[in-house]
Design goal:
By secondary structure, the protein is mainly β. The chain contains no helices and 5 strands.
Length: 77
């Protein structure tokens, strides 16, 4: 048998935020850093944005049910 574990997004009143570590072209792949209460992790990410996401940019995590999180440009606060 096999045991499959799903990574769940922590329930939050607003979307989770991450910081781009490796540039992502539109619809492409890169890396993001996610800071949480249990520490910091760097994960592979796919952009659903129509513009390039550059290192240092704050993005919104829209799906973290796979090993590659899906992100988009974070709206201005």
């Amino acid at each position: 048998g096999a045991l499959l574990l799903r990574r769940r997004c922590a329930p939050q009143p607003r979307a989770a935020r991450a910081v781009v570590v490796r540039e992502m072209p539109p619809g492409g792949y890169g890396q993001v850093r996610i800071d949480g209460s249990e520490g910091t992790i760097v994960m592979a990410a796919q952009s659903i944005d129509s513009q390039v996401l550059t290192p240092g940019m704050v993005v919104e995590v829209v799906d973290c049910t796979r090993s590659v999180v899906t992100v988009r440009r974070s709206p201005p606060e």
